[in-house]
Specification:
254 residues, alpha/beta, five-stranded mixed sheet, three-stranded mixed sheet
Protein backbone atom coordinates (compact mmCIF):
# COMPACT_ATOMS: atom_id res chain seq x y z
CA UNK A 1 0.00 0.00 0.00
CA UNK A 2 1.37 3.40 -0.97
CA UNK A 3 1.13 6.02 1.80
CA UNK A 4 -1.33 8.82 1.23
CA UNK A 5 1.31 11.21 2.59
CA UNK A 6 4.89 10.15 2.01
CA UNK A 7 7.75 10.72 4.42
CA UNK A 8 10.51 13.17 3.60
CA UNK A 9 13.57 14.27 5.48
CA UNK A 10 12.77 17.32 7.55
CA UNK A 11 14.36 20.63 6.67
CA UNK A 12 16.33 20.39 9.91
CA UNK A 13 17.76 16.97 9.04
CA UNK A 14 18.60 18.00 5.47
CA UNK A 15 20.53 21.02 6.73
CA UNK A 16 22.30 19.05 9.47
CA UNK A 17 23.26 16.36 6.96
CA UNK A 18 24.77 18.94 4.62
CA UNK A 19 26.60 20.75 7.41
CA UNK A 20 27.94 17.46 8.77
CA UNK A 21 29.62 16.84 5.42
CA UNK A 22 30.81 20.40 4.87
CA UNK A 23 32.17 21.39 8.28
CA UNK A 24 33.24 19.91 11.59
CA UNK A 25 30.15 19.90 13.80
CA UNK A 26 30.60 20.56 17.49
CA UNK A 27 30.09 17.41 19.61
CA UNK A 28 26.64 18.51 20.82
CA UNK A 29 25.54 19.32 17.25
CA UNK A 30 26.95 16.02 15.95
CA UNK A 31 25.07 14.15 18.68
CA UNK A 32 21.87 15.95 17.74
CA UNK A 33 22.39 15.16 14.05
CA UNK A 34 23.08 11.47 14.77
CA UNK A 35 19.93 11.29 16.91
CA UNK A 36 17.83 12.87 14.17
CA UNK A 37 19.27 10.63 11.46
CA UNK A 38 18.80 7.46 13.50
CA UNK A 39 15.21 8.43 14.23
CA UNK A 40 14.54 8.99 10.55
CA UNK A 41 16.01 5.61 9.64
CA UNK A 42 13.74 4.00 12.22
CA UNK A 43 10.73 5.70 10.68
CA UNK A 44 11.72 4.40 7.24
CA UNK A 45 11.92 0.91 8.71
CA UNK A 46 8.37 1.26 10.04
CA UNK A 47 7.27 2.57 6.63
CA UNK A 48 8.53 -0.63 5.04
CA UNK A 49 6.14 -2.58 7.27
CA UNK A 50 3.09 -0.37 6.74
CA UNK A 51 3.66 -0.38 2.97
CA UNK A 52 2.75 -4.09 3.00
CA UNK A 53 -0.70 -3.49 4.51
CA UNK A 54 -3.49 -4.63 2.21
CA UNK A 55 -6.50 -3.15 3.97
CA UNK A 56 -8.44 -0.05 2.96
CA UNK A 57 -6.50 2.56 4.94
CA UNK A 58 -5.07 6.06 4.62
CA UNK A 59 -1.46 6.17 5.83
CA UNK A 60 -0.15 9.65 6.62
CA UNK A 61 3.56 9.80 7.44
CA UNK A 62 5.34 12.63 9.21
CA UNK A 63 2.67 15.15 10.17
CA UNK A 64 3.63 18.32 12.04
CA UNK A 65 0.46 19.96 13.33
CA UNK A 66 -0.40 22.93 15.52
CA UNK A 67 -3.23 23.50 17.99
CA UNK A 68 -3.49 26.66 20.07
CA UNK A 69 0.15 27.52 19.27
CA UNK A 70 1.30 24.09 20.46
CA UNK A 71 3.17 22.13 17.79
CA UNK A 72 3.35 18.35 17.77
CA UNK A 73 4.85 15.72 15.49
CA UNK A 74 3.08 12.52 14.45
CA UNK A 75 5.45 9.92 13.02
CA UNK A 76 2.69 7.82 11.43
CA UNK A 77 -1.09 8.27 11.43
CA UNK A 78 -3.40 5.64 9.93
CA UNK A 79 -7.05 6.32 9.18
CA UNK A 80 -9.33 3.28 9.12
CA UNK A 81 -13.09 3.14 8.81
CA UNK A 82 -13.81 3.29 12.56
CA UNK A 83 -10.50 4.26 14.17
CA UNK A 84 -7.45 6.50 13.89
CA UNK A 85 -4.13 4.92 14.83
CA UNK A 86 -1.17 6.99 16.06
CA UNK A 87 2.38 5.64 16.11
CA UNK A 88 5.29 7.20 17.96
CA UNK A 89 8.22 5.40 16.30
CA UNK A 90 11.47 4.95 18.23
CA UNK A 91 14.75 3.54 16.93
CA UNK A 92 16.40 3.10 20.33
CA UNK A 93 19.17 0.52 20.43
CA UNK A 94 20.52 -1.40 23.39
CA UNK A 95 19.19 -2.12 26.87
CA UNK A 96 16.74 0.20 28.64
CA UNK A 97 14.63 -0.09 31.75
CA UNK A 98 11.23 1.24 32.76
CA UNK A 99 11.05 2.44 36.33
CA UNK A 100 8.45 4.55 38.16
CA UNK A 101 6.93 5.77 34.90
CA UNK A 102 10.24 6.79 33.33
CA UNK A 103 12.70 5.37 30.80
CA UNK A 104 16.42 4.97 31.52
CA UNK A 105 19.38 3.34 29.80
CA UNK A 106 19.71 0.07 31.73
CA UNK A 107 22.90 0.94 33.61
CA UNK A 108 22.30 4.68 33.98
CA UNK A 109 20.28 6.97 36.21
CA UNK A 110 20.05 9.56 33.42
CA UNK A 111 16.37 9.77 32.52
CA UNK A 112 15.50 10.05 28.81
CA UNK A 113 12.48 11.72 27.26
CA UNK A 114 9.44 9.53 27.92
CA UNK A 115 7.94 8.41 24.58
CA UNK A 116 4.67 7.53 26.32
CA UNK A 117 4.34 11.17 27.37
CA UNK A 118 5.01 12.21 23.76
CA UNK A 119 2.26 9.87 22.58
CA UNK A 120 -0.22 11.20 25.16
CA UNK A 121 0.58 14.76 24.13
CA UNK A 122 -0.04 13.94 20.45
CA UNK A 123 -3.33 12.30 21.38
CA UNK A 124 -4.53 15.20 23.51
CA UNK A 125 -3.68 17.79 20.83
CA UNK A 126 -5.09 15.77 17.93
CA UNK A 127 -8.49 15.21 19.59
CA UNK A 128 -9.63 18.88 19.45
CA UNK A 129 -8.34 19.19 15.87
CA UNK A 130 -10.53 16.27 14.84
CA UNK A 131 -13.51 17.76 16.66
CA UNK A 132 -12.99 21.11 14.96
CA UNK A 133 -12.95 19.30 11.61
CA UNK A 134 -16.23 17.55 12.48
CA UNK A 135 -14.89 14.04 13.09
CA UNK A 136 -15.53 11.84 16.12
CA UNK A 137 -13.31 8.87 15.29
CA UNK A 138 -11.63 7.37 18.39
CA UNK A 139 -7.83 7.38 18.58
CA UNK A 140 -5.65 4.40 19.46
CA UNK A 141 -1.97 5.17 19.92
CA UNK A 142 1.20 3.13 20.35
CA UNK A 143 4.85 3.73 21.10
CA UNK A 144 6.55 1.47 18.58
CA UNK A 145 10.16 0.33 19.07
CA UNK A 146 11.52 -0.84 15.73
CA UNK A 147 15.19 -1.64 16.35
CA UNK A 148 15.69 -5.43 16.69
CA UNK A 149 18.57 -4.78 19.12
CA UNK A 150 16.32 -2.97 21.62
CA UNK A 151 15.31 -4.47 24.96
CA UNK A 152 13.12 -2.80 27.59
CA UNK A 153 13.44 -4.33 31.06
CA UNK A 154 10.53 -4.13 33.51
CA UNK A 155 8.27 -3.12 30.64
CA UNK A 156 4.71 -2.41 31.83
CA UNK A 157 2.09 -4.66 30.23
CA UNK A 158 -0.68 -2.08 30.62
CA UNK A 159 0.97 0.63 28.50
CA UNK A 160 0.59 0.92 24.69
CA UNK A 161 4.10 -0.28 23.85
CA UNK A 162 4.98 -2.34 20.77
CA UNK A 163 8.27 -4.22 21.11
CA UNK A 164 10.36 -5.17 18.05
CA UNK A 165 9.21 -8.80 18.35
CA UNK A 166 5.57 -7.64 18.19
CA UNK A 167 5.80 -5.66 14.94
CA UNK A 168 4.60 -8.50 12.72
CA UNK A 169 1.64 -9.12 15.04
CA UNK A 170 0.82 -5.41 14.89
CA UNK A 171 0.76 -5.44 11.09
CA UNK A 172 -1.44 -8.55 11.11
CA UNK A 173 -3.84 -6.82 13.50
CA UNK A 174 -4.07 -3.78 11.23
CA UNK A 175 -4.59 -6.01 8.20
CA UNK A 176 -7.35 -7.99 9.89
CA UNK A 177 -9.43 -4.97 10.91
CA UNK A 178 -12.40 -4.59 8.55
CA UNK A 179 -12.16 -1.17 6.93
CA UNK A 180 -14.06 0.42 4.09
CA UNK A 181 -13.19 4.07 3.59
CA UNK A 182 -15.56 6.68 2.22
CA UNK A 183 -15.09 10.08 0.67
CA UNK A 184 -15.48 11.53 4.17
CA UNK A 185 -12.30 9.73 5.26
CA UNK A 186 -10.50 11.18 2.24
CA UNK A 187 -11.67 14.66 3.21
CA UNK A 188 -10.19 14.14 6.69
CA UNK A 189 -6.87 12.94 5.28
CA UNK A 190 -6.70 15.91 2.90
CA UNK A 191 -7.52 18.37 5.67
CA UNK A 192 -4.82 16.99 7.96
CA UNK A 193 -2.25 17.14 5.16
CA UNK A 194 -3.25 20.75 4.40
CA UNK A 195 -2.54 21.61 8.06
CA UNK A 196 0.98 20.12 7.95
CA UNK A 197 3.65 22.60 9.08
CA UNK A 198 6.81 22.32 6.98
CA UNK A 199 8.92 24.36 9.42
CA UNK A 200 8.98 23.09 12.98
CA UNK A 201 9.59 25.71 15.70
CA UNK A 202 11.68 23.14 17.57
CA UNK A 203 14.36 22.87 14.87
CA UNK A 204 17.93 23.50 16.03
CA UNK A 205 20.66 24.62 13.65
CA UNK A 206 24.38 25.15 14.34
CA UNK A 207 25.76 28.59 13.62
CA UNK A 208 27.96 28.79 10.53
CA UNK A 209 29.11 31.09 7.75
CA UNK A 210 29.37 30.33 4.05
CA UNK A 211 33.15 30.67 4.10
CA UNK A 212 33.42 27.96 6.76
CA UNK A 213 31.85 25.33 4.51
CA UNK A 214 33.69 22.90 2.25
CA UNK A 215 32.47 23.38 -1.32
CA UNK A 216 31.60 20.60 -3.74
CA UNK A 217 28.96 18.00 -4.61
CA UNK A 218 28.13 15.69 -1.70
CA UNK A 219 27.47 12.04 -2.50
CA UNK A 220 23.75 11.28 -2.57
CA UNK A 221 24.24 7.84 -0.97
CA UNK A 222 26.76 8.12 1.89
CA UNK A 223 26.41 11.92 2.40
CA UNK A 224 30.04 12.11 3.52
CA UNK A 225 32.27 12.01 0.45
CA UNK A 226 32.59 14.69 -2.21
CA UNK A 227 32.11 13.23 -5.67
CA UNK A 228 34.87 13.90 -8.20
CA UNK A 229 34.80 14.04 -11.99
CA UNK A 230 35.96 10.73 -13.42
CA UNK A 231 34.67 11.02 -16.98
CA UNK A 232 33.12 13.81 -19.00
CA UNK A 233 29.58 13.03 -17.94
CA UNK A 234 30.16 11.04 -14.73
CA UNK A 235 31.20 11.76 -11.16
CA UNK A 236 32.17 9.14 -8.57
CA UNK A 237 32.24 9.24 -4.77
CA UNK A 238 35.71 8.21 -3.54
CA UNK A 239 34.23 7.11 -0.20
CA UNK A 240 31.52 4.63 -1.27
CA UNK A 241 32.03 4.41 -5.05
CA UNK A 242 28.56 5.65 -5.99
CA UNK A 243 28.35 6.92 -9.57
CA UNK A 244 26.10 9.70 -10.84
CA UNK A 245 25.81 11.73 -14.00
CA UNK A 246 27.10 15.28 -13.82
CA UNK A 247 23.71 16.71 -14.83
CA UNK A 248 21.89 14.75 -12.10
CA UNK A 249 24.40 15.72 -9.42
CA UNK A 250 24.34 19.44 -10.28
CA UNK A 251 20.53 19.57 -10.35
CA UNK A 252 20.29 17.64 -7.07
CA UNK A 253 22.76 19.95 -5.39
CA UNK A 254 20.95 23.05 -6.61
Amino acid sequence: MHPYKTRQKSKELRILSSLNARMGLLPKDKKHYDYQEKGYQGELLFDQLTSKLQDDLYILNDLCLEHNKSFFQIDTLIISQLMIYLFEVKNYEGDYRYESGNFYPRLSKEEIKNPLDQLKRCNSLLCPILRNLGFQLPIEGYVTFVNPNFTLYQAPINEPIIHPTQLNSLMKKLNDIPSRLSNRHKILADQLISMHQTDSPYSRFPSYTYNQLNKGIICSVCHTGFSVLEAKQKIVCPTCGHEETVDSAVLRSM
